[in-house]
Amino acid sequence: MMRKLTSPLSLSPAVLPLALVLLAVSTWVQAAEHRLLIIGDSLSDAYDMSREAGWAHLLAERLGDDWTVVNAAISGETTAGAAYRTPDLLEAHAPDHVLIILGGNDGLRALSPAQVHRNLAAIIDQSKASGAKVALMQIRLPASLGPVYLRRFEGLYPSLAEHHEVELLPFFLETIFDQPGMIMADGIHPTEAAQPLMLEQVWPSLSEFLRVPQ
Length: 214
Hints:
Blueprint: H1 16-32, E1 34-40, H2 55-63, E2 67-71, H3 79-93, E3 97-101, H4 104-108, H5 113-129, E4 133-137, H6 147-164, E5 167-169, H7 195-210
Parallel strand pairs: 1-2, 1-3, 3-4, 4-5
Helix pairs in contact: 2-7, 3-5, 5-6
């Protein structure tokens, strides 16, 4: 036997006021939810560990039920690959906040900073056009790539943030990468022990971007 769904407007007058209150509360709860989309690479993909150990999952736990954190990071991702994926990600998840943490793989391959700039600009523009607030994280590269390349590459992040009027967040390995036990044997990827510290490093700026209490 099929069960009939009841509309509040079809209820008796005695029950109607309570039903309308419950409907209003339900609508408020749905409207209170925010959605953060993280577009990144292995630094956010919990490389070589469970996703539950990664900093993005720890962020989701800290933000609580009012937030949905969509971690769309893929190990090995480049800015070109992310620029190609972004329209589908925006359509599928409809985020109101987008955090872009990309460029490390481009830099390790010594790709043209101008090309990286174009790709990141495309991701920012696509995200802003969807109505989302956007933040870009500064990326740092190993000193072995040389001072000229580092200056050009790392300098594109504040330039992009200023030109596109988006938040620039500090690199979350900035102060911990040289501490014992924070980086894997490959010299690139953060360990499981580093994940909570990565979140703490970026939390003051990220909480301001998301407008949540610190």
